[in-house]
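Assemble and predict.
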Amino acid sequence: MGLTGPDAGQGVAEVSGESPNWVTARLSDLVNWSRTRSLWPMPFGTACCAIEFMATAAGRYDISRFGMERQGFTPRQADVLICAGRLPFKLAPVIRRVWDQMPQPKWSISMGACASSGGIFDNYAMVQGIDTIIPVDVYVPGCPPRPEGLLYAIFLLQKKIMGESLTDQQLRVERTLGPDGLFRAPALIDEISEPFGNSVHQTRSS
Amino acid sequence: MTAAAAASPSVAALRARFGNSILRDRVICGDTVVWVAADRAHEVLSWLRDDPGQGFDYLTDLTAVEYRDGELPLEVVYQLRSLARRADLRIKLELDKAQPLEVESVCDLWAGANWLEREVFDMFGVTFRNHPDLRRILMWETYAEGFPLRKDFPLRGHFSRSEQTRQALAANPEAHYSLEELSIAESYRELSVEMRERLGRGERGEVS
Protein backbone atom coordinates (compact mmCIF):
# COMPACT_ATOMS: atom_id res chain seq x y z
CA MET A 1 0.00 0.00 0.00
CA GLY A 2 2.08 2.85 -1.26
CA LEU A 3 -0.49 5.42 -0.18
CA THR A 4 0.12 4.83 3.49
CA GLY A 5 3.89 4.40 3.16
CA PRO A 6 6.53 7.10 3.44
CA ASP A 7 6.36 7.84 -0.28
CA ALA A 8 2.71 8.70 0.01
CA GLY A 9 3.56 11.22 2.70
CA GLN A 10 5.84 13.08 0.27
CA GLY A 11 3.17 12.96 -2.40
CA VAL A 12 0.65 14.38 0.03
CA ALA A 13 3.01 17.18 0.93
CA GLU A 14 3.36 18.01 -2.75
CA VAL A 15 -0.32 18.25 -3.49
CA SER A 16 -1.26 19.85 -0.21
CA GLY A 17 0.46 23.07 -1.19
CA GLU A 18 -2.06 23.60 -3.97
CA SER A 19 -5.71 24.38 -3.83
CA PRO A 20 -8.09 21.41 -4.15
CA ASN A 21 -8.64 20.35 -7.72
CA TRP A 22 -9.97 17.33 -9.53
CA VAL A 23 -6.78 15.31 -8.97
CA THR A 24 -6.44 15.98 -5.25
CA ALA A 25 -10.15 15.45 -4.71
CA ARG A 26 -10.00 12.02 -6.37
CA LEU A 27 -6.79 11.23 -4.48
CA SER A 28 -8.49 12.22 -1.20
CA ASP A 29 -11.41 9.97 -2.03
CA LEU A 30 -9.08 7.06 -2.68
CA VAL A 31 -7.02 7.60 0.48
CA ASN A 32 -10.12 8.18 2.61
CA TRP A 33 -11.81 5.10 1.19
CA SER A 34 -8.81 2.95 2.02
CA ARG A 35 -8.61 4.46 5.50
CA THR A 36 -12.27 3.82 6.29
CA ARG A 37 -11.85 0.19 5.30
CA SER A 38 -8.81 -0.39 7.49
CA LEU A 39 -9.53 1.34 10.79
CA TRP A 40 -7.58 -0.51 13.41
CA PRO A 41 -9.12 0.04 16.82
CA MET A 42 -7.21 0.52 20.05
CA PRO A 43 -9.69 -0.66 22.69
CA PHE A 44 -9.42 1.30 25.92
CA GLY A 45 -11.98 -0.66 27.90
CA THR A 46 -12.46 0.43 31.49
CA ALA A 47 -15.94 -0.73 32.43
CA CYS A 48 -19.15 -2.43 31.30
CA CYS A 49 -19.01 -0.72 27.89
CA ALA A 50 -15.97 -2.89 27.22
CA ILE A 51 -18.22 -5.95 27.50
CA GLU A 52 -20.39 -4.51 24.74
CA PHE A 53 -17.26 -3.74 22.76
CA MET A 54 -16.23 -7.39 23.11
CA ALA A 55 -19.67 -8.42 21.90
CA THR A 56 -19.22 -6.09 18.93
CA ALA A 57 -15.86 -7.63 18.16
CA ALA A 58 -17.08 -11.21 18.57
CA GLY A 59 -18.69 -13.38 15.94
CA ARG A 60 -22.33 -12.29 16.13
CA TYR A 61 -21.74 -8.61 15.32
CA ASP A 62 -18.24 -9.04 13.92
CA ILE A 63 -16.57 -5.66 13.75
CA SER A 64 -14.13 -7.20 11.24
CA ARG A 65 -16.75 -6.84 8.52
CA PHE A 66 -15.96 -3.13 8.48
CA GLY A 67 -12.22 -3.38 8.21
CA MET A 68 -11.48 -3.40 11.92
CA GLU A 69 -9.98 -6.82 11.66
CA ARG A 70 -7.04 -6.24 13.90
CA GLN A 71 -7.57 -5.28 17.51
CA GLY A 72 -4.36 -3.40 18.15
CA PHE A 73 -3.55 -3.58 21.82
CA THR A 74 -0.61 -1.38 21.08
CA PRO A 75 -1.33 2.29 20.40
CA ARG A 76 1.55 2.56 17.94
CA GLN A 77 -0.29 0.37 15.44
CA ALA A 78 -3.80 1.70 15.86
CA ASP A 79 -6.01 4.29 14.15
CA VAL A 80 -9.08 4.58 16.37
CA LEU A 81 -9.03 4.92 20.13
CA ILE A 82 -12.27 3.52 21.52
CA CYS A 83 -12.69 4.58 25.12
CA ALA A 84 -15.29 2.11 26.37
CA GLY A 85 -16.29 2.97 29.90
CA ARG A 86 -15.83 5.51 32.65
CA LEU A 87 -12.49 7.22 32.97
CA PRO A 88 -11.24 8.00 36.48
CA PHE A 89 -8.80 10.85 36.97
CA LYS A 90 -6.13 8.30 37.79
CA LEU A 91 -6.42 6.95 34.23
CA ALA A 92 -6.43 10.41 32.64
CA PRO A 93 -2.62 10.55 32.12
CA VAL A 94 -2.75 6.97 30.80
CA ILE A 95 -5.31 7.63 28.06
CA ARG A 96 -3.48 10.86 27.22
CA ARG A 97 -0.23 8.94 26.77
CA VAL A 98 -1.93 6.24 24.73
CA TRP A 99 -3.41 8.96 22.51
CA ASP A 100 -0.02 10.68 22.16
CA GLN A 101 1.59 7.38 21.16
CA MET A 102 -0.88 6.76 18.34
CA PRO A 103 0.48 7.93 14.99
CA GLN A 104 -1.48 10.16 12.65
CA PRO A 105 -3.96 9.76 11.11
CA LYS A 106 -5.97 8.90 14.21
CA TRP A 107 -9.52 9.27 15.46
CA SER A 108 -11.30 8.50 18.68
CA ILE A 109 -14.71 7.22 19.72
CA SER A 110 -16.13 7.98 23.14
CA MET A 111 -18.31 4.97 23.88
CA GLY A 112 -21.09 5.27 26.43
CA ALA A 113 -22.50 7.88 28.76
CA CYS A 114 -19.59 7.81 31.22
CA ALA A 115 -16.83 8.29 28.68
CA SER A 116 -18.85 11.05 27.00
CA SER A 117 -20.00 12.99 30.05
CA GLY A 118 -19.09 11.22 33.27
CA GLY A 119 -22.54 9.62 33.25
CA ILE A 120 -23.89 8.89 36.70
CA PHE A 121 -20.43 9.34 38.20
CA ASP A 122 -20.48 13.07 38.91
CA ASN A 123 -17.99 12.67 41.76
CA TYR A 124 -14.46 13.42 42.89
CA ALA A 125 -12.85 10.52 41.08
CA MET A 126 -14.25 10.69 37.55
CA VAL A 127 -13.35 12.64 34.43
CA GLN A 128 -16.51 14.39 33.20
CA GLY A 129 -16.12 13.39 29.57
CA ILE A 130 -12.91 12.29 27.90
CA ASP A 131 -13.08 15.29 25.56
CA THR A 132 -11.51 17.27 28.40
CA ILE A 133 -8.43 15.05 27.91
CA ILE A 134 -8.27 14.09 24.22
CA PRO A 135 -10.13 15.13 21.08
CA VAL A 136 -13.20 13.03 20.34
CA ASP A 137 -14.67 12.38 16.90
CA VAL A 138 -17.81 10.40 17.67
CA TYR A 139 -19.81 10.10 20.89
CA VAL A 140 -21.94 7.01 21.43
CA PRO A 141 -24.87 7.43 23.81
CA GLY A 142 -26.10 4.57 25.96
CA CYS A 143 -25.40 2.91 29.25
CA PRO A 144 -23.91 0.79 27.85
CA PRO A 145 -24.58 1.19 24.11
CA ARG A 146 -25.67 -1.93 22.30
CA PRO A 147 -23.24 -3.30 19.69
CA GLU A 148 -25.44 -1.75 17.00
CA GLY A 149 -24.78 1.61 18.64
CA LEU A 150 -21.03 1.17 18.42
CA LEU A 151 -21.27 -0.05 14.82
CA TYR A 152 -23.36 3.02 13.98
CA ALA A 153 -20.63 5.18 15.52
CA ILE A 154 -18.08 3.47 13.31
CA PHE A 155 -20.26 4.18 10.25
CA LEU A 156 -20.43 7.83 11.34
CA LEU A 157 -16.67 7.91 11.72
CA GLN A 158 -16.24 6.38 8.26
CA LYS A 159 -18.58 9.02 6.88
CA LYS A 160 -16.55 11.70 8.61
CA ILE A 161 -13.30 10.32 7.21
CA MET A 162 -14.80 10.25 3.71
CA GLY A 163 -15.36 14.00 4.09
CA GLU A 164 -11.73 14.72 4.91
CA SER A 165 -9.45 16.44 2.44
CA LEU A 166 -5.76 15.84 1.88
CA THR A 167 -5.27 19.57 1.35
CA ASP A 168 -6.62 20.45 4.80
CA GLN A 169 -3.54 21.48 6.73
CA GLN A 170 -5.27 21.45 10.11
CA LEU A 171 -6.62 17.91 10.05
CA ARG A 172 -3.47 16.04 10.98
CA VAL A 173 -2.01 18.56 13.39
CA GLU A 174 -1.07 16.87 16.65
CA ARG A 175 -3.08 18.51 19.44
CA THR A 176 -0.91 18.23 22.51
CA LEU A 177 -1.40 19.53 26.03
CA GLY A 178 -0.99 23.27 26.42
CA PRO A 179 1.65 25.03 28.52
CA ASP A 180 -0.78 24.96 31.48
CA GLY A 181 -0.86 21.15 31.26
CA LEU A 182 -4.44 21.08 30.02
CA PHE A 183 -5.99 20.02 26.75
CA ARG A 184 -8.74 22.63 26.82
CA ALA A 185 -9.16 26.03 28.45
CA PRO A 186 -9.80 25.71 32.20
CA ALA A 187 -13.07 27.65 31.95
CA LEU A 188 -14.32 25.28 29.26
CA ILE A 189 -13.42 22.21 31.33
CA ASP A 190 -15.28 23.67 34.30
CA GLU A 191 -18.26 24.48 32.11
CA ILE A 192 -18.65 21.10 30.47
CA SER A 193 -18.03 19.36 33.81
CA GLU A 194 -21.12 20.96 35.33
CA PRO A 195 -24.06 18.61 35.90
CA PHE A 196 -25.56 17.96 32.44
CA GLY A 197 -22.82 20.21 31.07
CA ASN A 198 -21.24 17.88 28.60
CA SER A 199 -24.46 16.43 27.25
CA VAL A 200 -25.73 19.82 26.09
CA HIS A 201 -22.42 20.97 24.62
CA GLN A 202 -21.69 17.98 22.42
CA THR A 203 -22.72 18.11 18.81
CA ARG A 204 -22.94 15.38 16.26
CA SER A 205 -19.73 14.64 14.49
CA SER A 206 -21.02 14.52 10.95
CA MET B 1 -29.29 -7.52 75.80
CA THR B 2 -31.69 -10.25 74.75
CA ALA B 3 -29.47 -11.52 71.98
CA ALA B 4 -26.56 -12.03 74.37
CA ALA B 5 -27.23 -15.74 74.43
CA ALA B 6 -26.26 -15.99 70.78
CA ALA B 7 -23.08 -13.94 71.23
CA SER B 8 -19.80 -15.56 70.35
CA PRO B 9 -18.09 -17.26 73.32
CA SER B 10 -15.09 -15.08 72.51
CA VAL B 11 -16.88 -12.15 74.16
CA ALA B 12 -16.86 -13.73 77.61
CA ALA B 13 -13.22 -14.74 77.17
CA LEU B 14 -12.31 -11.19 76.10
CA ARG B 15 -14.10 -9.70 79.09
CA ALA B 16 -12.39 -12.10 81.48
CA ARG B 17 -9.02 -11.28 80.00
CA PHE B 18 -9.22 -7.54 79.24
CA GLY B 19 -11.94 -6.31 81.60
CA ASN B 20 -12.78 -2.66 81.10
CA SER B 21 -10.99 -2.42 77.77
CA ILE B 22 -13.93 -4.32 76.26
CA LEU B 23 -16.40 -1.47 76.01
CA ARG B 24 -19.57 -3.25 74.84
CA ASP B 25 -20.81 -5.98 72.55
CA ARG B 26 -23.84 -6.61 70.40
CA VAL B 27 -25.17 -9.31 68.14
CA ILE B 28 -26.23 -7.80 64.81
CA CYS B 29 -27.82 -10.10 62.23
CA GLY B 30 -26.18 -13.06 63.90
CA ASP B 31 -22.71 -11.50 63.91
CA THR B 32 -21.02 -10.66 67.19
CA VAL B 33 -19.58 -7.15 67.30
CA VAL B 34 -17.20 -6.15 70.11
CA TRP B 35 -16.15 -2.56 70.77
CA VAL B 36 -12.62 -2.37 72.15
CA ALA B 37 -10.72 0.57 73.65
CA ALA B 38 -8.50 1.94 70.90
CA ASP B 39 -5.35 2.09 73.01
CA ARG B 40 -5.41 -1.66 73.74
CA ALA B 41 -6.69 -2.77 70.35
CA HIS B 42 -3.42 -4.21 69.12
CA GLU B 43 -3.02 -6.21 72.32
CA VAL B 44 -6.57 -7.57 72.05
CA LEU B 45 -6.21 -8.47 68.38
CA SER B 46 -2.86 -10.10 69.00
CA TRP B 47 -4.39 -12.21 71.77
CA LEU B 48 -7.36 -13.17 69.56
CA ARG B 49 -4.96 -14.38 66.92
CA ASP B 50 -2.55 -16.26 69.17
CA ASP B 51 -4.69 -17.70 71.95
CA PRO B 52 -5.28 -21.40 71.19
CA GLY B 53 -8.91 -21.10 72.26
CA GLN B 54 -9.53 -18.22 69.81
CA GLY B 55 -7.25 -18.80 66.84
CA PHE B 56 -8.51 -15.95 64.65
CA ASP B 57 -5.80 -16.53 62.09
CA TYR B 58 -7.47 -14.80 59.13
CA LEU B 59 -8.28 -11.11 58.75
CA THR B 60 -11.26 -11.11 56.39
CA ASP B 61 -11.50 -7.36 56.13
CA LEU B 62 -10.34 -4.14 57.67
CA THR B 63 -12.27 -0.97 57.02
CA ALA B 64 -13.64 2.14 58.68
CA VAL B 65 -17.03 3.81 59.11
CA GLU B 66 -17.90 7.43 59.62
CA TYR B 67 -21.51 8.05 60.57
CA ARG B 68 -23.64 10.87 59.26
CA ASP B 69 -24.24 11.98 62.86
CA GLY B 70 -21.19 14.17 63.44
CA GLU B 71 -21.25 13.48 67.19
CA LEU B 72 -20.55 9.78 66.69
CA PRO B 73 -16.91 8.71 66.59
CA LEU B 74 -15.24 7.23 63.54
CA GLU B 75 -14.97 3.45 63.75
CA VAL B 76 -12.22 1.17 62.52
CA VAL B 77 -13.58 -2.32 61.85
CA TYR B 78 -11.69 -5.60 61.91
CA GLN B 79 -13.54 -8.64 60.59
CA LEU B 80 -11.79 -11.74 61.92
CA ARG B 81 -12.17 -15.38 60.96
CA SER B 82 -10.86 -18.53 62.57
CA LEU B 83 -10.32 -20.93 59.71
CA ALA B 84 -9.93 -23.92 62.03
CA ARG B 85 -12.97 -23.17 64.23
CA ARG B 86 -15.04 -21.65 61.39
CA ALA B 87 -15.96 -18.76 63.67
CA ASP B 88 -16.24 -15.06 62.94
CA LEU B 89 -15.80 -12.03 65.15
CA ARG B 90 -16.05 -8.33 64.38
CA ILE B 91 -13.91 -5.93 66.41
CA LYS B 92 -14.56 -2.20 66.34
CA LEU B 93 -12.52 0.69 67.70
CA GLU B 94 -13.89 4.16 68.21
CA LEU B 95 -11.73 7.15 67.32
CA ASP B 96 -12.61 10.60 68.59
CA LYS B 97 -12.68 12.88 65.56
CA ALA B 98 -11.43 15.82 67.62
CA GLN B 99 -8.15 13.97 68.19
CA PRO B 100 -5.63 12.85 65.55
CA LEU B 101 -6.92 9.63 64.00
CA GLU B 102 -4.24 7.10 64.91
CA VAL B 103 -4.30 3.35 65.41
CA GLU B 104 -1.62 0.74 65.82
CA SER B 105 -1.06 -1.18 62.59
CA VAL B 106 -1.87 -4.90 62.58
CA CYS B 107 0.42 -5.68 59.66
CA ASP B 108 2.65 -7.56 62.07
CA LEU B 109 -0.27 -9.85 62.94
CA TRP B 110 -1.82 -10.31 59.50
CA ALA B 111 0.33 -9.41 56.51
CA GLY B 112 -2.86 -8.97 54.47
CA ALA B 113 -3.70 -5.88 56.50
CA ASN B 114 -1.08 -3.92 54.56
CA TRP B 115 -3.18 -2.79 51.61
CA LEU B 116 -6.40 -2.68 53.67
CA GLU B 117 -4.84 -0.20 56.09
CA ARG B 118 -3.49 1.80 53.17
CA GLU B 119 -7.04 2.00 51.79
CA VAL B 120 -8.42 3.19 55.14
CA PHE B 121 -5.64 5.76 55.28
CA ASP B 122 -6.36 6.85 51.71
CA MET B 123 -10.13 7.15 52.13
CA PHE B 124 -10.52 8.20 55.81
CA GLY B 125 -7.16 9.65 56.81
CA VAL B 126 -6.60 7.22 59.68
CA THR B 127 -2.87 6.92 60.38
CA PHE B 128 -1.62 3.46 61.23
CA ARG B 129 1.42 3.52 63.50
CA ASN B 130 4.26 1.15 62.54
CA HIS B 131 2.76 0.44 59.12
CA PRO B 132 5.62 -0.62 56.82
CA ASP B 133 4.47 1.41 53.79
CA LEU B 134 1.66 3.82 54.61
CA ARG B 135 0.78 5.75 51.45
CA ARG B 136 -2.27 6.21 49.26
CA ILE B 137 -3.41 3.17 47.32
CA LEU B 138 -6.55 4.12 45.34
CA MET B 139 -5.96 7.81 44.74
CA TRP B 140 -2.58 8.78 43.33
CA GLU B 141 0.10 9.54 45.86
CA THR B 142 0.21 13.29 45.24
CA TYR B 143 -3.58 13.59 45.65
CA ALA B 144 -4.05 16.79 47.65
CA GLU B 145 -7.81 17.16 48.13
CA GLY B 146 -8.12 15.19 51.35
CA PHE B 147 -9.86 11.95 52.26
CA PRO B 148 -12.81 11.22 49.97
CA LEU B 149 -14.95 9.01 52.21
CA ARG B 150 -15.03 11.49 55.09
CA LYS B 151 -18.43 13.08 55.59
CA ASP B 152 -17.01 16.61 55.34
CA PHE B 153 -15.59 15.84 51.88
CA PRO B 154 -17.77 17.29 49.08
CA LEU B 155 -18.91 14.71 46.54
CA ARG B 156 -17.19 16.44 43.64
CA GLY B 157 -14.00 17.13 45.59
CA HIS B 158 -12.56 20.40 46.83
CA PHE B 159 -10.89 21.65 43.65
CA SER B 160 -12.47 22.83 40.43
CA ARG B 161 -12.75 20.32 37.59
CA SER B 162 -10.05 22.06 35.59
CA GLU B 163 -7.67 21.97 38.54
CA GLN B 164 -8.47 18.29 39.12
CA THR B 165 -7.85 17.59 35.44
CA ARG B 166 -4.58 19.52 35.50
CA GLN B 167 -3.29 17.65 38.54
CA ALA B 168 -4.40 14.30 37.15
CA LEU B 169 -2.67 14.93 33.81
CA ALA B 170 0.49 16.04 35.60
CA ALA B 171 0.75 12.68 37.37
CA ASN B 172 3.22 10.18 36.01
CA PRO B 173 1.25 6.96 35.48
CA GLU B 174 4.41 4.88 35.70
CA ALA B 175 5.13 6.13 39.20
CA HIS B 176 2.19 4.26 40.72
CA TYR B 177 3.31 0.68 40.48
CA SER B 178 6.64 -0.96 40.14
CA LEU B 179 7.06 -4.53 38.99
CA GLU B 180 8.65 -5.28 42.34
CA GLU B 181 5.54 -4.07 44.12
CA LEU B 182 3.26 -6.27 42.07
CA SER B 183 5.54 -9.29 42.13
CA ILE B 184 4.65 -12.11 44.48
CA ALA B 185 8.04 -13.73 44.07
CA GLU B 186 9.46 -11.83 47.03
CA SER B 187 6.65 -12.63 49.43
CA TYR B 188 6.82 -16.32 48.54
CA ARG B 189 9.80 -16.68 50.85
CA GLU B 190 7.84 -15.18 53.71
CA LEU B 191 5.10 -17.80 53.54
CA SER B 192 4.92 -20.53 56.11
CA VAL B 193 6.64 -23.83 55.30
CA GLU B 194 3.33 -25.62 55.05
CA MET B 195 1.92 -23.03 52.63
CA ARG B 196 5.04 -23.15 50.47
CA GLU B 197 4.81 -26.91 50.32
CA ARG B 198 1.14 -26.77 49.32
CA LEU B 199 1.80 -24.15 46.64
CA GLY B 200 4.79 -26.16 45.46
CA ARG B 201 2.60 -29.22 45.03
CA GLY B 202 0.14 -27.14 43.09
CA GLU B 203 -2.76 -28.59 45.07
CA ARG B 204 -5.27 -27.14 47.43
CA GLY B 205 -4.53 -29.72 50.10
CA GLU B 206 -6.92 -32.21 51.65
CA VAL B 207 -10.27 -30.94 52.78
CA SER B 208 -11.13 -32.52 56.12
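Chain B touches chain A at residues 138-140, 145, 148, 153-157, 160-173, 176 (CB under 8 Å).
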